[in-house]
């Protein structure tokens, strides 16, 4: 791929290639934008088919983090790391120690965290070499398991979407179809059950389904049946791209709000559901509880402070809906616009400050 052409087109700041022959480390750090602050984004370890595929993933994911952090109101930019290798067989202590030294060398421009293929233990190993890492063990002052916090943020965002669609944010009596009942979704179901919602659930893991049925009185359906059930809210909480040409004609819900990443298979699917009058809560906005939580570690983790910010996702989602109405655009576009407006305001502020500094210096 033409790397500089791609970086210029999407305004990336930095792309770093890190290797350590002794440990087998092959890492790519992509820093998209640091206008709002240092770049924060996780480290993913994956068996990429090619180096080009790894580069594209790092670039794509780092840009996504810029928007996610900006939309969440964090004073952080977007970055991401990918490590090329099999996370099941190729990890070693030396690899993550070496990687930690590379992060330390960036002197705070990039802060990492756990992602697909990496663990809290891996973050602890990185922490041996640098302080620019979040999601470490609670023994080191971290926030611990992010799933309950992410779930609470999704719950708050879902209530905001209900207000937009139904004129009330009460979920009592609402029928909510939850696709996937993993750690985040299970905690989400707990909140929904406590408020009196009626749950329909599905998951390829039958034990997870049975747990939701037993604990929350949920109704279980087969995985392919979840799209067509009669419900008020569809909550995608497993795989991405579940909003697509095949599923959209089946969806009866008035609201789509869930924890999964990349819910729209293509951007045009966001246009289609907008035209159908479905209130869609963009995924990177509603599921930002996890990154808000780990970002609080940068100030010395305080649970109450972090949860107050996560609670604010209600207002963030409401703001997305307001922009969508203001500009007559789908909500997925409105979320991008909200993030871009915040970044642009800060960029102008910084530019004005630098110009004033130069003006003062020139007069001396």
How would you describe the overall organization of this protein?
The longest helix has 32 residues, at 331-362. The model is unreliable at 357-361 (pLDDT under 50). Strand 8, helix 7 (206-216) and strand 9 form a beta-alpha-beta unit. Helices cover 46% and strands 14% of the residues. It has two domains: 3-66 and 77-139, Rossmann fold, CATH 3.40.50; 146-288 and 317-339, 3-Layer(aba) Sandwich (Rossmann fold). With 364 residues, it is of the alpha/beta class. It has 13 helices and twelve strands. The chain has helices at residues 3-9, 51-71, 93-105, 120-127, 147-166, 183-195, 206-216, 267-275, 283-286, 289-295, 303-311, 313-327, 331-362, and strands at residues 14-20, 25-33, 39-40, 43-46, 77-84, 110-111, 175-179, 198-202, 219-220, 233-236, 255-256, 279-280. The strands form two sheets. Strands 1, 2, 3, 4, 5 and 6 form a six-stranded mixed sheet that branches. Helix 5 packs across helix 6, helix 5 packs across helix 10 and helix 6 (183-195) packs parallel to helix 7. It is an enzyme of class 1 (oxidoreductase). Pathway: Amino-acid degradation; L-leucine degradation; 4-methyl-2-oxopentanoate from L-leucine (dehydrogenase route): step 1/1. The active site is at 80 (proton donor/acceptor). NAD(+) binds at residues 180-185. It catalyses: L-leucine + NAD(+) + H2O = 4-methyl-2-oxopentanoate + NH4(+) + NADH + H(+).
